[in-house]
Amino acid sequence: MKPGEYLDFKKEDLVGMDFKCVWESMEECQNLGLTKSIGVSNFSSKKLQTLLATAKIPPALNQVEMNPVWQQKKLRKFCQENGILITAYSPLGGNKEGTWRTNRVMDSDVLKQIANSKGKTIAQSFNKERMKQNIDILDWSLSSEELEMIDQIPQQKGNPAISFISNQGPFKSVEDLWDELRSSISSSCNNEIKAMPLVGMGTSSYPPTNMEKAKSAIVEAIKVGKDVKSLPVERELIEPLDIKSVWEGMEECKRLGLTRDIGVSNFTCQMLHHLLSIAKIPPALNQVEMSPIWQQKKLREFCNEKGIHITAYSPLGAFGTQWGDNSVIECDVLQEIANSKGKTTAQIALRWVYEQGVSLVAKSYNKERMRTNLDIFDWSLTHEESHKIAQIPQRKTVTFASILGPHDLVLDIDQQL
Prior knowledge:
By secondary structure, this protein is α/β, with parallel strands linked by helices. The chain is built from 17 helices and 7 strands. It has helices at residues 19-31, 45-54, 73-81, 109-118, 128-135, 144-151, 174-183, 211-223, 243-255, 269-278, 297-306, 332-341, 345-355, 367-374, 383-390, 401-404, 408-416; strands at residues 40-41, 61-65, 85-89, 264-265, 285-289, 309-313, 359-361. It comes from Cannabis sativa (Hemp).
C-alpha cells in the first residue's frame, strides 16, 4: 500500500473485542496445555489495568511498537511493575513505503550522530551481512550521555489509527473508527460465540475466503487438543494419525487464508509418498532431525525431487534434553575439522547442515554461543572435510519413545524413522 491508499474493508468486518470473554478463553487454552503462555499486543497501560482487574492468569507479554522515536516510557514502567515483558515491533520504523511505515528512525539526526561516533550502523535488511551487523549489539553499550541524547528525541508514533482512515474509505475520521468499535462492545459474555476482530486476526490473507468457515476451523482446531500435562504420556492419549483427514483440514486452512503454507514433521519417504498420492496441496516443508551423525541422505534426495523443503531440528544433538545426547559435539571427526579451521565443533556441524541446502533450528540461551552459532556464513568446508563428515557412522539421536514413553504405536513410529 502507498500513502493515501486505504484498507478496503467494511465496517461490519470490524467489531469490538469483549476482552473478558476472549481472555477467559485464552486462559483456558493455557490451562489445557495448548500454549505455554498468553499475551497481548498493542495494549496501553489503561487497557492492561482493565485486563489485570479480571484476569486469573496475567499476560506474560505485550507486543507494541517501540523504538527511539516512540519510546513508550509510561507503558514500559507499568509493564515492569506488573511483571509483563514487552516485545518491540518496528524497532527501526519499517523504513519502507507503506501506509504506516516511516523512515523517522533511520533518518534521526541524533541516532546518526551516535552511530558515526561509535563506528556503528542504524541499518536493517534481509541482506546476510546486514543481519550479522544487526546482531552485533551484545558486546558494547551506550554511554549515559548517548542515552540522554536519545531520551530527548521528539516522540511520534509510527503506526497510528489514522492509517485506517481515508475520505474514500469506510471510516472518515479516527473518532468514526473508535466510536464504531465502542458501540459494538458487549458488556458480558452470555456464553455466546463472539465474532473475531478481523484486524489483528493474524491471517495470511485479507479477507479470508469465508468468515464462518474460518471461525469453525479455529474452533475445531482447539477442540482436538489433548490434555497432556506431563511426559511421558498415558497410552490412551496416543492415537494413530488419520493423515488423509488431517491433511484435508490443513488444506482447507490454507484455502481460507488462515496460513501461508502447510507442512509436516518427522515424515519418512514412505509417509510423504502416501501423502502426495492423496494431497491436493503438497507439503511445503518437512521438519526432521538432521545432523552430521544423522544425515538423512535418502530423505533429502526424495524431498529435493518433490520440491519439499527440509528444516533440520537438533542439528547439535539436543544435548541437555531428555531425548538428546552429546554425540554430535563429541564427534572426533567434527572436533578434528574444528581444530584445523579454528572453529567450534558446533560451528562445523551447523555449517555442514547449512551446506546441504536446508534451513536449521538451533537453540541456546547463551548470548556468546548464539553469536558463534551464527558465524557460519563467511567460510565453507572443503571437499575433503565434507567427505570425512559423509563417512561418519549414522545414528538417530531423537526417539519418540524417550519423550512419549515406550508404547507400541510410538515404538512403531521410531522404527519407521
